[in-house]
Amino acid sequence: SVNLGSSLCVVMTVARNQYERMGSDVTMQCGSLDNDASVSWKVNGTDVKAQHRLEGPRLILTQVNLGHNGLYSCFQNPHGERRDTIILHIGIPPREPTVTCRSNTYPKGFYCSWHQLYSTYIPTTFEVDVQHNQRSLEVQKDSVHKNRCHVRFPEVFSSFPYKVNVTAVNALGKASTTITFEESTIVKPDPPERVTATPIRFNPRRLEVSWHSPATWPDIDNFPLKYFLRYRPLIRDQWQHVELSDSTSHTITDAYAGKEYIIQVAAKDTEIGTWSDWSVAVHATPWIEDPLPIASTTEDSSTLLTETKTSPIPSSNAPQKAEPPVGRAAKLLTFFSPLLLGMLLLLMW
């Protein structure tokens, strides 16, 4: 109690938390009142409507679920003095967390992440322990991802395995998972960055693809990466693949002319580990030749003008039927044939 002035006394009640398992029957005790005390209960300021029963200073709820969460207060009869306040939290104990570890910054270190397959509905924390060569390693929590931690490699090319234990803990119980791995098995770079695909002028079947190694890979000179390129036209589902050593560019030479392509690249340490995820997809279309200009003529009463027009599609007019060629001698014979016939008739006379 807090004494305010000389005559006013106010009773301050601090709410306490009570955690209970979903589906169970829950008993809430009104402070330290005797078993024969008579009390009434309210939840969130209203009468308790859920299925329940009263046993002296106790409130018993049956088969609780998330709907029973709330602020419960008990009052002693007959004057209605508040004797206790309880915040009820319904949840479930944690199950074994799923744990994965990966090194995308080899050889600097690795990170481990974990998650619960099912929600516990109440606050759950995780304890992480990493062992290597019979000693515990320092674990640094991630500043962004709450379910992730970082560990530095104590040495490179170690033959000793790493053991990671993650324990999930809440007010209703705990559960743990332990995984063991070799250093080389968890190396997996991030995908290549800034992938570009450019058409090559006058080459309708080529695309020039280039990319950068992931910025998170710390020592590309001493720990080089190799790359895997895949590409396909949008009209087909089947990918074509090219594996490259440490080059960060490649020329596609078998593209379909005029077809849009989708292109992705993955990376891997040249000796250990697994391939990265695919890079963000880029789209590109090989070089397309500009349509040839089409010449057309127009004639007015005084001059003959020639115009040049560019058309995106060929003309649909059918070609005119050509006349058979006629030789110069045949033309002369056709012209003089009536004259020769007349001279022949005069000679016959």
Automatic annotation (TrEMBL):
Just give the chief location class. membrane
SMART domains membership = FN3 (SM00060), IG (SM00409), IGc2 (SM00408)
**Which keywords belong to this entry?**
Cell membrane, Disulfide bond, Glycoprotein, GPI-anchor, Immunoglobulin domain, Lipoprotein, Membrane, Receptor, Repeat, Signal
Which CDD domains does the record associate with it? FN3 (cd00063)
**Cited InterPro entries:** FN3_dom (IPR003961), FN3_IL27B_N (IPR056621), FN3_sf (IPR036116), Hematopoietin_rcpt_L_F3_CS (IPR003530), Ig-like_dom (IPR007110), Ig-like_dom_sf (IPR036179), Ig-like_fold (IPR013783), Ig_sub (IPR003599)
Membrane topology term reads:
Lipid-anchor; GPI-anchor
PANTHER family the UniProt entry points to: CILIARY NEUROTROPHIC FACTOR RECEPTOR SUBUNIT ALPHA, CYTOKINE RECEPTOR
Name of the molecule in the record: Ciliary neurotrophic factor receptor subunit alpha
